[in-house]
Amino acid sequence: MRVILIGYRGTGKTSVGRILAESLDLPFFDTDTLVERTAGVSIPEIFRQHGEARFRALERGVIESLAGVEGVISTGGGAVCDPTNVADLRRHGRVYLLSASPETIGERIAGSDRPGLTDLPPEEEVRSLLARRKDAYLGAADACVDTGSRTPVEVAGIILRDIRGENALPLEGRRERDDLLERFGLSGLRGMLGRDPGLMVCGIAGYPCAHSRSPLLYNRLFERFGMNYHYTLFEWPDVGTIIRLASLLPTKGLSVTIPFKTDVMRYLDEVDEHAAAIGAANTVVRCGGRSYGHNTDWLGVRTPLLHRQGARAVVLGAGGAAAAAVYALCSLDMEVTILARKPDAARRLAERFNCRWGGLEDFRGCKADVVLNATPVGMEPDTRSLLDAGDLEQGMTVFDLVYTPPDTPLIRAARETGCEAIPGTEMFVHQAVEQFRLITGIAVSPEEVREVLS
């Protein structure tokens, strides 16, 4: 058994870890203590002599040496900001994030000889670093425990009950969960959870979403990184019902697809700046009973088009995917025109981002360098194309966000015309890299994602 405690200094990791180790009859490892033992000097002295970079390198080596080792492991406050550390810590382990308010942390660490990591006053540094590390903490954790008003014994008790599967839903909650699982066609998941109460769940929320390759990708990556996780389909016509089922399961993350990327935001406790600006979320991270929304679609659009910065672009469509695309293209200083079957929808989206707009029939007058299809047209079984080879010109870059099938009619027309053709699989790959990091804290490369999907 591996139990890993993460979180900011002063949240009780060492005290709670020692109690857990004794209760579980496991060895206790404190990575800060092991760093000092390796260096032969105290952590403040490491910082004084060599700086933070040397400390982080020593910390990385210590955590690597503990990969797969049974025991209770207490980590330094910034350890999980390095995705390599997260991969080593997560391997066959269960990770608990211990948290407390900035005020409580400030009181607990007052008088410490540990050097500051910024030039800010101590109270401001705590707030700043908590904000900076928030995504890393939430991503790396399987469960979150607030230690602010609890003693170390109480916190350890919560974790022990979780490990033993004793933090079960009340009877009414179990009945509702099981009924929803049956309605969703997920009775097999109910059996998996019955056999393994420590199993964590992720899934894709959409209608339809059976075509998605996310289950294949995530389940293979979970296996690769030794994570006790399972990714499934939450295919249902109402996103509120999906969110309710997710709240009754040990759900860590959701990928959100059509038609729910906008509607899902009503059910989230927080959204990041990108999702708020786009008005759509395709990623939900859950921890400690709260849901955090993100948008990674825009990165899936932006990354393959970095070489076309400053170009003239046309976006076909005015829905959630189009909003993410426009946001990405504007971040690359492109001159964007939005064209849609319903011009009013194009106008509304264009007004948000200060772009040109029109109907689909206006395409030929746009003189585009980049053409991006952000509609579902081309997705099986509707394998049509909004444009044909006669609408395209050699030298254009054509990006179709549809990835099932990967070789859409629009992509074929682009190749026939001599355009640069970017299939929707590239968007999927690059957004999945960021989504996997947000949900698990682990960084994978685009090459790893392509390899898994091939």
UniProtKB/TrEMBL annotation:
UniProt keywords (A-Z) are: Amino-acid biosynthesis, Aromatic amino acid biosynthesis, ATP-binding, Kinase, NADP, Nucleotide-binding, Oxidoreductase, Transferase
Which transformation does this protein catalyse, written as a reaction? Answer: shikimate + ATP = 3-phosphoshikimate + ADP + H(+); shikimate + NADP(+) = 3-dehydroshikimate + NADPH + H(+)
Q: Which GO terms describe its biological process?
A: amino acid biosynthetic process; aromatic amino acid family biosynthetic process; chorismate biosynthetic process; shikimate metabolic process
List, from the UniProt record, the residues annotated as the active site of this protein. Answer: K261 (proton acceptor)
According to the UniProt record, what class of enzyme is this? oxidoreductase
Question: Domain SDH C-terminal spans what residues?
Answer: 424-453
Per the record, the coiled-coil ranges are: none
Where would I find the Shikimate dehydrogenase substrate binding N-terminal domain in this sequence? 204-284
Q: In which pathway does it act?
A: Metabolic intermediate biosynthesis; chorismate biosynthesis; chorismate from D-erythrose 4-phosphate and phosphoenolpyruvate: step 4/7; Metabolic intermediate biosynthesis; chorismate biosynthesis; chorismate from D-erythrose 4-phosphate and phosphoenolpyruvate: step 5/7
One GO cellular component from the entry?
cytosol
Q: Which InterPro entries match?
A: Aminoacid_DH-like_N_sf, NAD(P)-bd_dom_sf, P-loop_NTPase, SDH_C, Shikimate/glucono_kinase, Shikimate_DH, Shikimate_DH-bd_N, Shikimate_DH_fam
Enzyme Commission number, as recorded: 1.1.1.25
The residues the record assigns to binding NADP(+) are: E273, G317, A318, G319, G320, A321, L401, G424
A GO molecular function annotation here is: shikimate 3-dehydrogenase (NADP+) activity
Its domain of life reads: Archaea
Positions that bind shikimate: S212, R213, S214, T257, N282, D297, Y403, Q431
| Assembly and interaction partners | Homodimer.
- Similarity field: Belongs to the shikimate dehydrogenase family.
Name the NCBIfam families for this protein. aroE (TIGR00507)
Its biological function? Involved in the biosynthesis of the chorismate, which leads to the biosynthesis of aromatic amino acids. Catalyzes the reversible NADPH linked reduction of 3-dehydroshikimate (DHSA) to yield shikimate (SA).
UniProt-recorded name of the protein: Shikimate dehydrogenase (NADP(+))
